[in-house]
Amino acid sequence: MSDASRDADFCAVRERLEAERASTSAQIGALSRDFTAIVEANALVAIDDEHDPEGSSTAFERAHVASLLARAREHLADLDQALERLENGEYGRCEVCGEPIPTERLEVRPAARTCVRCAEARIR
């Protein structure tokens, strides 16, 4: 692979990671606003989740948004780590076996740290 081709690949990967990072940051902002709105709306009303028919729905909604927010923050951290690996020349290598991660996997999961085989082995 020529230096120009490698540079183009590096730039394309960096752009994809940065675009996904920007999207994830925007999602975190929106979820944070939603969570704050739920908490503030509940603070205005004395809600007894156990006895209020709407309480369980509100508690579920708050927990659901909190879970989505946690996942988005985790994904943002994964993207930051992927950008760091890219800068260090380690991007695209499986952290477990050291083999290259297939391009197709990285296109779907740009922050992937493992190849499919090692990811499947970890799940089992």
Automatic annotation (TrEMBL):
Molecular function GO terms recorded: zinc ion binding
Record's keyword terms, sorted: Metal-binding, Zinc, Zinc-finger
Domain Zinc finger DksA/TraR C4-type residue range list: 89-122
Cross-referenced Pfam families: zf-dskA_traR
Organism whose genome encodes this protein: Wenjunlia tyrosinilytica
Protein name in UniProt: DnaK suppressor protein
Zinc finger intervals, dksA C4-type: 94-118
